[in-house]
Design brief:
By secondary structure, the protein is of the alpha/beta class. The protein has 4 helices and 3 strands. This is Alpha/beta hydrolase fold-3 domain-containing protein.
């Protein structure tokens, strides 16, 4: 199977020099900042990401917003040759679309995801 694209909705990744307690709880055997599952910049294979397009969905008031931006910048600087796009929803917090799936912003997010998936 060949992937053409990847959608990340309100992603959780580490930022630069900090390892938070949530990550240690989820992955107690983690090596910390050099664990590529936590810190994408630690993954030497990032430039060979197995797709040609990435959509990163962020929410303006999400406490993890900066982590999505960090992934975006890391991917752009990795040498990966694909297209990366950010779609940010204004005025919303983390996973707002799960708590209020019928709101206008959730519907707009779903349409954005569908458009990305249907674009081959």
């Amino acid at each position: 199977m060949k992937l053409s694209g990847l959608c990340l909705v309100h992603p959780y990744f580490g930022i630069k020099d900090t390892v938070d307690e949530s990550w240690i709880f989820v992955s107690p055997t983690t090596s910390g900042l050099d664990d590529f599952r936590y810190n994408p910049a630690a993954d030497s294979r990032m430039a060979s990401l197995g797709c040609t397009r990435v959509l990163i969905c962020l929410a303006e008031k999400d406490v993890l917003r900066q982590r999505g931006l960090y992934y975006y910048e890391t991917l752009r600087k990795s040498g990966w040759s694909g297209e990366v796009e950010i779609a940010e929803t204004e005025g919303e917090g983390h996973v707002f679309h799960l708590f209020n799936p019928n709101c206008h912003n959730a519907e707009a997010l779903l349409k954005k995801l569908a458009s990305f998936i249907n674009h081959s």
